[in-house]
Design a protein that fits this description.
3 helices, 41% helix, rod-shaped
């Protein structure tokens, strides 16, 4: 008889624990679910869809291409410098019935080129160019035993 009472008490307790466990489990599952409206479903699909992500990236790429195309039509300038450039040559001058005479010629050159370019919509370019050239020439003549110097400037 004691065993029967013991089983009845514990059986009721076991059922109670099982019911509480099931209630907690169903509450946990219910918390993860959400009732969606049609508008909510469309917004989630637009946000998470890979096709929509690709379309957004394509739009961003097209916007960047537009910025690059506009940038190609802006004026630009280019400056090239050749400074200093030194060259020296030795030339032999034959002298009749004597040893040859050697002359030395040296050039020290500075050069700069400035190009201002304006791209045209016809796929051409209008260029304004300015060039300056400065050269120091030094010639040593052995027959006169002196240096002859001159400066040249071209624009």
């Amino acid at each position: 008889m004691e065993a029967k009472v013991f089983v009845q008490k514990h059986f009721g307790f076991t059922i109670l624990i099982t019911l509480v466990f099931l209630a907690m489990l169903s509450a946990a599952f219910a918390a993860g679910k959400k009732l969606l409206t049609l508008q909510d479903a469309i917004e989630i699909a637009l946000e998470k869809s890979y096709q929509m992500k690709v379309l957004r990236l394509n739009l961003e790429q097209a916007e960047q291409n537009l910025v690059a195309a506009k940038g190609r039509f802006k004026s630009n300038a280019e400056l090239r410098m050749d400074v200093p450039n030194w060259s020296e040559t030795v030339s032999e001058i034959p002298v009749k019935n004597d040893l040859p005479v050697f002359n030395t010629t040296g050039f020290l050159r500075y050069q700069g080129v400035l190009d201002i370019n304006q791209p045209l919509p016809t796929d051409g370019t209008l260029t304004l160019r300015s060039q300056i050239y400065h050269r120091n020439v030094s010639i040593y003549t052995a027959d006169l035993l002196r240096d002859i110097k001159r400066k040249e400037v071209y624009s």
